[in-house]
Amino acid sequence: MDQKWWIMEFSHELIMPNQGLPFKVFLFEGGEGNYFRNKHWHRSVELFAVYEGNLEFYLNEQAYPLRTGEFILVNSNEIHSIDSPNPNRTIVLQIPLKTFEDYYTGEQYIRFTHTPRAKDGEVMRLIREIYASYEERMCGYEMKVKGLYYMLLYLLVTEYRETDVTPDMVKRNKKLNRLSLITNYIKENYASDLSLETLAEVFGYSPTYLSRMFQKYAGINYKSYLQSIRLERAFQELANTGHTISEVALDNGFPNSKALAKAFQKKYGILPSEYRKGIGKEKKL
What phi, psi does 29 have (nearest 5°)? Predict the structure, then answer.
């Protein structure tokens, strides 16, 4: 099935560290290529280090192509998307924001540069060794991994931290923190009749203010955001269950199968029935 794998979730994500470590490290899930991850943000600081192949990163609508031997720092609450058309080997490292609390330059705010620095090669080496040591898990690996990790943190705060931040940057960060609470609520209640008015009442905002908050700080209107969550969940249900398309539609907040089909085709360029047939063919191969 020649279909790009889309991950639709435009949201805030909670990061859980690896067991026994104060951070999370793993291989990028789009390593096989033919993959796109739509806009989302984290409370954590994130590093993507490419050791083979390439990626296309988008931070606040600006493109940052990554080639072999390059990495990018994604700041807390920085909206980003990832295009991975080709196979690659990319290590992802996610660091809880609280790690940097002694170095905040604003209220729960720290920002790292995206521009190359003299220590880029050293950062790439440290991330590679962190991942290799974690995967091997030889005797004492926890101490070795933590030692490499703290050296990496040292480089981040001394070589990459930006100290000249503006009040607007701090304000945007605070708004996205608030928006995260709202999007988490949406993710738990997306299947219900969740109008903008209902959501605004739950959080004590006016519908107009909440609508502007979505558009200004997340770069998407509320209706489109809710639709993206419903489509992602429907996509997963079509792929992983035997439910009828009508059942999938109702399970995920669509009034009927026709409404689901229209939205699904607009986003993916294929009908739900055609997508399911494609999955069936793949399983037979």
Answer: -70, -15
Burial class (CB in 10 A: 0-12, 13-18, 19+), 62: exposed
> Do 123 and 152 form a contact (C-beta atoms < 8 A)?
yes
How many C-beta atoms surround the C-beta of residue 85 within 10 A? 15
User: Which residue reads 């999955």 in tokens?
Assistant: 279
Confidence band (pLDDT; 50, 70, 90) for 14? very low
Is the overall model pTM greater than 0.70, yes or no? yes
Token representation of residue 229: 């969550």
**In Å, how far are 54, 70, 92 from 48, measured between CA atoms?**
11, 8, 5
* Element (DSSP H or E) covering residue 178: helix 167-189
Q: Six-digit token pair at 113?
A: 């540069």
Mean pLDDT value of segment 234-247: 91
CB atoms within 10 A of CB 233: 19
Give the integer Cα–Cα distance in Å for 90 and 92.
6
Half-sphere exposure of 85 (CA within 13 A, CB side): 4
Round the CA-based radius of gyration of the chain to a whole number and report it: 21
Beta-carbon-side half-sphere exposure of residue 202 (alpha carbons within 13 Å): 13
Q: What is the DSSP string of 37-81?
A: EEEEEESSEEEEEEEES-EEEEETTEEEEE-TTEEEEE-TT--EE
Total Cβ atoms within 10 A of residue 284 = 5
Which residue shows structure tokens 């931290």? 161
Mean pLDDT over 78-102 rounds to 93
Instruction: Round to whole Å and give the CA distance between 230 and 222.
Output: 12
One-letter amino acid identity for 25?
Answer: V
